Request: fold
Amino acid sequence: MKRVATVWGSLRKRLWEHRGELALSLRVTTAAVSSFALSHLLHIPLPLWTVLTAVILTQASFGQSLKATFEYLVGTLFGAVYAGILAVLVPHDNDVALAGVMAIAVAPLALLARINPAFRVATFTGVLVLLIPGTTHVGPIDSALYRVLEVAVGGLTALVVSLLVFPARAHALAIEGAAELLDLMARSLSELVSGFTHGCDASAVRRIQDGIGRAFGQVDAVGAEARVERIGFLAAEPGLGPLLRTLLRLRHDFVMIGRAAAVPLPEAFQARLGPRLAQVATTAAEYLRRSGEALRGRLDPPPLEAAEAALAGCAEAFEAVRRDGLTRGLPVETVERIFALGFTLDQLLQNFRDLQRCVREAARSP
Reply:
């Protein structure tokens, strides 16, 4: 009995960890079955394209589905109209003529798709409009109309399912991604700052910076989907622009810290600045971690006083170093790294204050 309970507990944990993937699987399944049923109710000749459209456009979040559906509908409409008109105006009674018409249709549509990715499905649609009549025995105009109808039914089905079946909002996913990014920054800061006293392996620095860059890229992409949601009819939350800009500036701060920590500081500077930098790393990492927790729970931001005090103490230490003339006689590159580090820490404090304001706004959102 105990073994069964253990297995069940482990299974529940795994299901909870993959709840997002399971919800998406259920949404896609529901969209496929629903679009198939609608195709029969509307007497659409080829339910295949309706079902495929619904499956393709049912995305991880409602905002992503909305963006994909809009682009898919625009591209389909343009490709169907262009190919339909071309098929009517240019005779193509044999395969050679059909190949010529297809070349005339595909070339400009492919160029348009390359210029504007929103039209990338137009080329595919144009080919279908030209080739489907040969297999279903319908005219080119009917082929174009059916193609638009198939995509419209599939796209609307995807939107309704994304909104009603375990809906995932891009805004919530962006907030979760931002919290994960802050956690990653918190875990990475101590390793970067240790480079000022012990040196930092270049490959380790690249690994940290690449990881932070990828995480920010993912958050920024989901943030774009959240903007699409706000343009639509789900506009209750404040925009994510200030949070995304703050995260980008924090990302830049980490890049500057990593560059400055590529080589250990001179021994005299390590004695004066080392303890201060270690205190900054500890308090700043804790502030980042707790800010991530506050974002997840829509809570008020954590207190900033400890990080402010540590950064202020570090600024005083930098000023004392300048005042005592310890930078005289050092290589220019070393002096530049020291001053760049001082500037970066000043920016870090300002960005922490901006982060505090963003977390507070997230806590007040519905």
